[in-house]
Structures are given as C-alpha cells and as structure tokens.
Amino acid sequence: QTDPIRRGRWIREKLLAGRVPDVPITVDAQVPDDPHKTFRERVESVTVQAECWKCHQHMNPLGLPFEVFDDFGRYRLEEPLESPENLIARTTKKNGTDTYKTKPVSTLGELHGTDDSELDGSVKDSFDLIDRLAQSDRVRQSIIRHAFRFFMGRNEMLSDSQTLIEADKTYVENGGSFKAVVVSLLTSDSFMYRKYVK
Predict the structure, then answer these.
(1) How far apart are CA 126 and CA 81, in angstroms?
(2) Predicted confidence (pLDDT) at residue 169 exceeds the cutoff of 60
(3) CA torsion 20→23→25→28, rounded to 10°?
(4) Which residues contact 115 (CB under 8 A, 6 or more apart)?
(5) pLDDT in tens, 90-144
(6) How far is Cα 188 from Cα 107, in angstroms, rounded to an integer?
(7) Given its phi and psi angles, is residue 98 left (phi above 0), alpha (psi -120 to 50 degrees) or beta?
(8) C-alpha of 147 from chain center
(9) What does each C-alpha distance from 152 to 9, 139, 144, 160 come to in angstroms?
(10) Reported pTM
(11) Cα–Cα distance, 171 to 180 (Å, whole number)
C-alpha cells in the first residue's frame, strides 16, 4: 500500500518545521480492510475520530494528495480494489497483473503551516501542493537548516543564527543555487571555527 500518513508527517516535520506526536502506545494503528473502498477512504474512516484527528489533521491533508501515485510511484487516476470479489480478469502473462474493479483517486488536500495566507488553503492535487511548498519561505529556511545540520554535523544553536541568515540570503540572491548555500556554509564562522570533540 501507499503510506499517505508517513508522507504527510515527513512534509510536516521536515519541510514545514512542525511537530507531530508519536502514536500513543494504547493505539493499534491499523487501516481496516474493505474491498469496496479506496485506501484513502479506509484511512479517513478511522482517523476522523476526535482522539485520532488531533494528530492526523497535521499529516493526512498533506499526504493524501500523493495518492495519485501508487506504491511504485506510478501516476494513476484510478485505484484498483484488489480483492477476490473485485477480480475482473486473471492475467495469462508470466509477469502480468490481474484486472480489478477500480475507483477514482481523490487528490484533494490542504496545506497549512507556511505562515503565508497566499499559500495556505485547499490544494487540488500533489502538483499544486508541491508548487506551493516551493514558494514557501518556511520550507526554504527549513531546507537551509537541514543543510547546516548535514555539513556541520550538529544541530544549530543561537550563535549560528548569522550563518543561517547568510546562507538563506545567498540562496535567494543566487536564484536558488544549492551550491551557493554549501559555499556559504563552508566559509562561515560556524564551520571555520568549529571545535572538534575527542
């Protein structure tokens, strides 16, 4: 199956610098089987409960637009309902796939957390979501922060604020050049005067 919840959590935490609590140990996080529903419909049937939705509201609307891609990443508009009772035809080819009844894939979602009223709101599909994320200052700054952590080998501290500001400014002034960000980070005081721990 696809994993819209994990996708949504990744976007929330890695791109939007948000936080989603871990699954409580008392929760059995299972998606129910139903041969008549798409995976999205099955996920939504269990995560809309109040105790679930308080966390899932931060993940589902970001991950569900990507249901337009199957578990191999292939683009699709119809989701096969892979159940014996939905089987239409068995394949006769060695590596072929059986044919099942299908349902249309819903790609609707919602973006919130960019702190930009022009970008936050309903999204029609994953491409709309990606375009909005690409325009977000918060996402850009989050990527710069991840680059800092990778090249410095540590999390940022308050004393690194000037380094992060300069790297962000460099990125914008150089038309989105990641190479310019790397040069900015590796020539910064945070890198040049780093301390080695034995």
Answers:
(1) 22
(2) yes
(3) 160
(4) 137, 138
(5) 988 888 888 999 999 999 999 999 999 999 999 999 999 999 999 999 999 999 9
(6) 43
(7) beta
(8) 18
(9) 25, 20, 12, 11
(10) 0.86
(11) 6
